[in-house]
Amino acid sequence: ARFNKNSEAKMSNNTCSPSTVFAWVGFILVNSAFSAIIVWGAFQAWPLGFVLSLGYSVFLFYIAGRLEKKIEGSDSQDENTSNVADNEVGDDDDGIRLLMSLTYALAVLGIGVTGSFLPINLFQCDGFLAYNGNFVGKWSANVSSFPQDVQSWALNDEMYSPSSFVFLPNQGTTLFSGENGTEDLGYGRRPWIISEPGSAPELISPYLLCADDFVLLTNDTDDTACFVGDVSNKTRDQPYYCQTNGISCFDGNSVQSISANAPEHLFANNGTLWFKARSPESWEKLIYSLNPNTAETTLHSAYTSNEEGSGGYHINSDCDEQNSRYMAITTFFVTALPVFAASIALWRKKCVSSMVVTGYGGLSAMVTTLYVTIDPTVSNLDEMLKWWFPLSSAIWLASAVILFLANRLREGSFAWSVNVGGIVFFVGMIILIGVPGEHDELWRWVALNFFCILPLVALGVITNAALGLVYGAVGILIDVYRITSLLTKGVDENFALPIRFIVLAAAGFGLGYLGLILSRNQDHIQASISGWSNRLPGWLRKVDKEPPSGDEENTPIQKNDCKSEKNTNGLALTGVEIS
């Protein structure tokens, strides 16, 4: 492996070429249109969606093959043309190569989408909303029996702006949703009360989170404020996400809460609270009313059967763990395994660089379906995936670097590995370690920097992988933000702003100086890594033949190399060149 000083500029120019940009835009637009047609077909009848998806996958393979033929013809013409400089690769050729790689990737994913129609529709389990082409029933409410104001509210499904506060006139107090500016910052949104003007806000309950959509129920003497939120009675200081699972009502002295499935659009009428919530079996909105004094809830929507309907969602209540296992096994063989096998075949036979990404996706799907086969209750699936993605992506990145330095992995495949594997690793490590977000212990921040941010920065420095450096830089920005929040915790706002200024300025100058040092020593670092790669075992390292002219810079690609993946690739941002 060798690091070409001129390759970074060359790669940058190719990456920003008009043909590459418009290839991306055209790819997104065309496939969005076809995806909409497939979804439409699936909602009409799942066999129609299956046929459309299969036909589109075959069409994509055909288009990718035609693009590959065009690239081979262009390469043959270039090889027969004398005095063609190494950096004079046509922009159109770069765009075609990128488009071919993306088309192959989408075609392989199309195999998985097509196969997924079978297990989703043949094995219908609770928790899976399977489209079977026939309504078995629907929810509806007799809106005409409601008070006039409630009728208008019930028929209005348009977007609305929930209120984040409410004033209780009889008590002279204000109830609002907010954060205390320190440990709740960005996560808490707890319900607070101001008892009288000038007094400090107080929490009405430490167990209520994510408060929103405040409404007032009032009469001549008493006021009650109701709002939606998380009523799980968890004393989390920093919940990972807000979960709206209930309604709470506060009368100025005490709080009563009820559970509901994603309640929203609260409406007060004559001392009664009306709200909409989702059905446990589907996404349909049901209408409820609540008596805030007794916490009694009344469902006003009724379920009616419609066996002769034209389409809808069906839940098979008889599904058991064994049926879930059948669904997972079928998914493994008709979706996950075909995607993985097709990716390996195209990567080995045609050197399609994007196949490293689809192959990883297929492998992840295989692992997931195998887990569900073993444990159909999926009791710890989230925990398994929390470990799988960061660990597997770390192995992916490490293998890509070693194979790249050993001259076994071409630059296009390495670029896809770094760009996609890097973001999977970065996000996966954040979720696994729990910062920023669910936790805030010091050791977790140290672990994030040592096991995630530093490796990404090292990856970028060693290989000139621009996105590797970007991911590492984002991690450093998160560190700076956390340090700033820690130093300003509990500090008066008049002093907090100067502290933020000093910390941010010092971090900015420090990172700039660090970047300068790394830039000055990058050649030495890369030379050391290149020397280490030269000592790799012979069975691992691929040694190219010396060019007859002795000119390494203009060495043509060997005849047994894949023409579909040159060293210039539309996605590559690495600045590293393999000879």
How does this structure look, described?
The protein is an alpha+beta fold. The chain is built from twelve helices and 16 strands. The protein has helices spanning 7-15, 18-44, 46-79, 91-122, 148-155, 321-350, 355-374, 381-405, 411-433, 442-463, 466-487, 493-534, and strands spanning 130-131, 138-141, 165-168, 173-178, 190-194, 202-203, 209-218, 223-230, 246-250, 255-259, 264-269, 272-278, 285-291, 296-299, 301-304, 313-314. The chain starts with 6 loop residues before the first helix and ends in a 45-residue tail after the last helix.
Layout of helices and strands, plus pairs?
Elements: H1 7-15, H2 18-44, H3 46-79, H4 91-122, E1 130-131, E2 138-141, H5 148-155, E3 165-168, E4 173-178, E5 190-194, E6 202-203, E7 209-218, E8 223-230, E9 246-250, E10 255-259, E11 264-269, E12 272-278, E13 285-291, E14 296-299, E15 301-304, E16 313-314, H6 321-350, H7 355-374, H8 381-405, H9 411-433, H10 442-463, H11 466-487, H12 493-534
Antiparallel strand pairs: 1-16, 2-15, 3-4, 4-5, 5-6, 7-8, 8-9, 9-10, 11-12, 12-13, 13-14
Helix pairs in contact: 2-3, 2-4, 3-4, 4-6, 4-7, 6-7, 7-8, 8-9, 9-10, 9-11, 10-11, 11-12
